[in-house]
Amino acid sequence: MVSDLGREREFPRTNTARPSKVTSQGPETPPPLPNVPATPPAYTSPASTRATCPKCKGAGYLRTNVPFGHPSFGKPVACDCKEAERKDKRRQQLRDMSNMDALRSHNFRTFNSRAPGVQEAFDAAMTFAADPEGWLVLVGPNGCGKTHLAAAVANQSLDQGAVVLFEAVPDLLDHLRAAFAPTANEVYDQLFSKMREAELLVLDDLGSQQSSPWANEKLFQLLNYRYNMGMPTVITSNTRSLQGADERIRSRIGDVSLVRNVNMDRARDYRPTNPRRRQ
Question: How far is CA 249 from the centre of its chain?
């Protein structure tokens, strides 16, 4: 009897396919992946309107339809709904920076363009808002609508995605003074730079501030920088206040090659109107 120990053990064969051989040309290229939702561990999907997005099913990201070996293969890309969410967030950030929340309703539709003496200013503001270049200076008595028009320009620029800063001049100077305090949320250099570099700067009530050598110098530094750079700027003032402004500032405002000056002294009893009641 032959011992089982001397025999080679036989195992039943299976139908399992052997792995394909790898040739010198490399492994067989798999077909490209379709655009499918991807939720990588590094990303989260906050509850929002994109949760119902038919494209990404709420993931916020997709895998691109590219072949293996492509630099973007396997990498998630933002869905359109995610991009819209990002733009909405950016728009809100710009609005928070602009100081325009209280003036959100001040637009061209709510402006009473039928009031006496405002048509030229209304047309000038509309033209400037459509293509902000140079400076627009609106001069007139209190209540003539110049602040409303300046805010309408600012709101339209905000809606177009521009970095806008709206400041009443006395408040602007107070903010600069406060920035010197050790407990200030924003240091002076950062705040002043933000004012200088805003894509659109609106200064309301120039000349209404308490005059001092420091205040005059800061305003001149701010406006002279924007004047030299030709940066879009809107200024409102009344005739008497403007006449008492720093001579260097009045010189910049008087440059007709850069500045459009509109006198609203004939405007009286301006009142905003409800657009639903306008005929």
Answer: 29
Q: Which two tokens stand for residue 67?
A: 């072949």
CB of 25 within 8 A of CB of 19?
A: no
Q: Is 96 helix (H, G, I), strand (E, B) or coil?
A: helix
**For residues 80 and 75, what is the distance between their CA atoms, to the nearest angstrom?**
16
Query: Into which CATH architecture does domain 99-277 fall?
Result: 3-Layer(aba) Sandwich (3.40)
Tokens found for residue 59: 């993931």
**For the chain, what are the domain ranges?**
45-90, 99-277
- pLDDT tens digits, one per residue of 1-53: 444 444 444 545 545 455 444 444 445 555 554 444 444 434 344 444 445 78
Where does the chain have alpha helices with state H? 80-98, 119-130, 146-159, 169-178, 188-197, 213-229, 239-243, 247-253
Secondary structure of residue 7 in the 3-state scheme = coil
The reported pTM is 0.67
Contacts by 122-130, CB closer than 8 A, 24 or more apart:
122/149, 124/260, 124/262, 125/149, 125/150, 125/152, 125/153, 128/153, 128/232, 128/234, 128/260, 129/153, 129/156, 129/157
For residue 185, give both structure tokens: 């949320």
Query: Which pair of tokens denotes residue 94?
Result: 């710009």
CB 166 within 8 A of CB 98: yes
Question: Which of 172, 175, 163, 156 minimizes the C-alpha distance to 236?
Answer: 172
Candidates 37, 68, 40, 76; CA nearest to 55 is: 37
Length, in residues, of the chain:
279
